[in-house]
């Protein structure tokens, strides 16, 4: 029944009971039973002409998710310091399985226009945040990504050879940051750093985002130092 919720995305904002039955390969009575129970729980709502959309309880659950997020609980003061010091937007990004999601954005003095935001899945191999998160993977974990998403990573311009692919992310890990220039959105640059766990994995990534036109005047070394120091401070508080 909870699989019904996975049927909604940017191209399918509403579904009918018939859609649900066909997608889940269940009978129509079973589909209607699922819909009825999800309506009662507030996880679906009826919108029009027997179409159903995700329900208001999800908004409430998102509120609780934000309040429980350990990175935001300890990191918000540091993130706000970072924004005040640079004037740039700061974005927190998490990796959930292999799904990249922005979880928070603190806006700077001239907020960037972002195509992605909280809850909208981002590409796995484009932009600074996903790359610093992938750089924290162990060799076996990274190889699984390489094998399962090979076509996608090649299209993103990453090395098609495993050895080169591994070296690429080892270099990012060693640097402790990544600077992307127009990778995800052509008008934007980002400097990202991972918030590391004690076991070498990552809680999340933080990125400073700004217009690529600023690259000619920005002290990039200073921005890198600020973002990596902030990530280290947040990681220290989480530890």
Summarize the structure.
InterPro entries: GAF-like_dom_sf, HTH_MetabolicPath_Reg, Tscrpt_reg_IclR_C, WH-like_DNA-bd_sf, WH_DNA-bd_sf. Residues 57-239 form the IclR-ED domain. With 239 residues, this protein is α+β, with helices and mostly antiparallel strands.
CATH-assigned homologous superfamily of the largest domain: GAF domain
What characterizes the major β-sheet? 5 strands, antiparallel
Q: Can you count the beta strands?
A: 8
Domain count: 2
Work out the strand percent. Answer: 15-25%
Major beta sheet, strand line-up: 5-4-8-7-6
CATH topology of the largest domain: Beta-Lactamase
Uncertain spans: none
**Rg calculated over all Cα atoms:** 20 Å
Structural class: alpha+beta
Mean pLDDT across all residues, rounded? 93
Distance between the termini: 37 Å
CATH architecture of the largest domain, by name, is 2-Layer Sandwich
Global outline: globular
Helix-residue proportion: 40-55%
Helix tally equals 9
At the first level of CATH, what is the class of the largest domain? Alpha Beta
Keywords: Transcription, Transcription regulation
InterPro entries: GAF-like_dom_sf (IPR029016), HTH_MetabolicPath_Reg (IPR050707), Tscrpt_reg_IclR_C (IPR014757), WH-like_DNA-bd_sf (IPR036388), WH_DNA-bd_sf (IPR036390)
Pfam family, one: IclR_C
Protein name: IclR family transcriptional regulator
């Amino acid at each position: 029944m909870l699989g019904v919720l996975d049927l909604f995305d940017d191209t399918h904002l509403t579904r009918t009971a018939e859609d649900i039955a066909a997608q889940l390969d269940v009978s129509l009575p079973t589909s209607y039973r699922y819909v009825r129970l999800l309506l009662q729980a507030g996880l679906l709502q009826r919108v029009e002409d027997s179409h159903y959309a995700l329900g208001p309880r999800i908004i409430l659950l998102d509120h609780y998710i934000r309040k429980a997020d350990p990175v935001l609980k300890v990191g918000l003061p540091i993130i706000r310091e970072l924004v005040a010091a640079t004037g740039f937007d700061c974005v927190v990004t998490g990796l959930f399985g292999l799904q990249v999601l922005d979880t928070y954005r603190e806006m700077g003095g001239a907020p960037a226009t972002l195509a992605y935001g909280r809850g909208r899945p981002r590409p796995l191999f484009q932009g600074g945040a996903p790359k610093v998160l992938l750089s924290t993977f162990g060799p076996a974990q990274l190889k699984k990504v390489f094998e399962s998403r090979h076509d996608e990573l090649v299209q993103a311009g990453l090395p098609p050879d495993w050895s080169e692919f591994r070296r690429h992310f080892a270099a990012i890990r060693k640097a402790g940051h990544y600077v992307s220039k127009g990778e995800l959105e052509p008008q934007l640059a980002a400097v990202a750093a991972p918030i590391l766990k004690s076991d070498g994995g990552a809680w999340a990534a933080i990125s400073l985002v700004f217009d690529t036109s600023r690259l000619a005047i920005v002290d990039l070394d200073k921005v890198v130092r600020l973002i990596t120091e902030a990530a280290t401070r947040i990681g220290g508080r989480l530890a």
